[in-house]
Amino acid sequence: MQEKYISISQLTRYIKFKFDTDENLKRVYLKGEISNFKAHTRGHYYFTLKDESSRINAVMFSSSVSRIKFQPEDGMKVLVTGRISVYEATGGYQIYVDEMIEDGVGNLYIQFEQLKKKLSAEGLFQEEHKRPIPKMPTRIGIVTASTGAAIRDILSTIRRRWPLTETILFPSLVQGASAAPNIVRQIEKAQEYDLDVLIVGRGGGSIEDMWCFNDESVARAIYHSHVPVISAVGHEIDFTIADFVADLRAPTPTGAAEMAVPSKKDILEYINQLHVRLDNSMENMILLFRKKLDAIQKSYILENPTSIYQMKEQKFDTLLDKLQMVMKEMTSKERLRLDHLLQSASYGITQNMKGQIHRFEKSMGRLEILNPLLTIGRGYSITKKDSKVISSISDIHEKDILEIELKDGAVETEVLKTCKKGRD
């Protein structure tokens, strides 16, 4: 019985043989629109050729590619010549293109360019309307299909890079005739939430699959969104109207997630840099204050406080000498009167000088009291914590490290216990 059964490979080979030996399929002439175009790194072209109701996979090898005079792209209408055969790995039939010429631009491409020109003229694409994406968003909205690679890639990337961010999915159709109004409703619904950024997009596909993101209503919904929008439609080479009107365009859904949130690794490195800069800044400030303190301690006034009144005493002696010389030069006729005046002046001057000397001595006494070096010299000390002078027991806690400054040096000590006045 089993000899009646054949393998799939045998069946596929037989069908391929039928295709390859059919004279009608050895040389066919087709016209259609290019979709899903891909230029391989080896020089081959892979694409889909379609019309209003059907499509066929197409391959054009590099030997044939070198003969065409234009760059094929999605939406182009072309005339191709080639042979029909079966690709055994998948069992699907396809056309192997030998020649290709242009047959105008596809209708979808024309619609795309017309809408792009219209919205651009209205200013929807201008950079002045683009809003910045927050550096560290706390809540991100996502408008895409609830299943599929796009939502999985976005969520996994956000969790990996910045798990502190909350995500809210606004599930939407992203393909077909009902997709555009559905996307608009979800974008409008997202405005009711306290979002920092909104990702709108889907994974790659044909130009027809992604056409809902070229819809005018979707473009205007993105433009009027008060939440900054990142467009993430298709693959890196795909562009839609949504990409142009969004605040930021990402090449892929994964790229949108990377643009929306920071990397926790980068943030940690930045924090470490701040720590280093803070330590350096503190060391520089401490060094600066120490230099200032040293300069004050070595100042001439503190080292020679008596110099303040010595200069005044010398000036007083000079004035007194001048006064005595004037008095001696007075004529004898005026001597009695001058003697009387001299006595009065001498008494007044003496009293005034006594008052000035008294006030001066009081000032010097205050200055002596305020001299921190003399205070330390009398057996007192200055206690500091973190370079700040401690004036109250409430500023000190157990295990604190204190710096005690004495007349001839300083010591560091650890607080074992604190006691307030009136307590054991």
Point out poorly predicted stretches. none
How many strands in all? 14
What is the percent of helical residues?
40-55%
Assign an overall shape: elongated
N- and C-termini, Cα separation: 107 Å
Largest sheet: 5 strands, mixed, barrel
What is the chain-wise order of helices and strands?
Answer: HHEEEHEEHEHEHEHEHEHHHHHHEEEE
Question: In percent terms, what proportion of residues is strand?
Answer: 15-25%
Strand order across the biggest sheet? 1-2-3-5-4
Account of the protein in words:
The structure is a single chain. Helices cover 44% and strands 22% of the residues. It has helices at 8-21, 23-26, 62-65, 107-122, 149-161, 179-190, 216-224, 241-245, 253-260, 264-297, 300-303, 307-328, 335-370, 372-377, and strands at 28-39, 45-50, 55-60, 76-87, 92-105, 139-144, 166-171, 197-202, 229-233, 248-249, 382-385, 388-389, 401-406, 409-414. A hairpin with a 5-residue loop joins strand 1 and strand 2. The mean pLDDT is 86.
Name some characteristics of this structure.
single chain, 424 residues, alpha/beta, 5-stranded mixed β-barrel, 5-stranded parallel beta sheet, 14 strands, elongated
Indicate the topology.
Blueprint (H helix, E strand, L loop, with lengths): L7 H14 L1 H4 L1 E12 L5 E6 L4 E6 L1 H4 L10 E12 L4 E14 L1 H16 L16 E6 L4 H13 L4 E6 L7 H12 L6 E6 L13 H9 L4 E5 L7 H5 L2 E2 L3 H8 L3 H34 L2 H4 L3 H22 L6 H36 L1 H6 L4 E4 L2 E2 L11 E6 L2 E6 L10
Parallel strand pairs: 3-5, 6-7, 6-8, 8-9, 9-10
Antiparallel strand pairs: 1-2, 1-4, 2-3, 4-5, 11-12, 11-13, 13-14
Helix pairs in contact: 5-9, 6-7
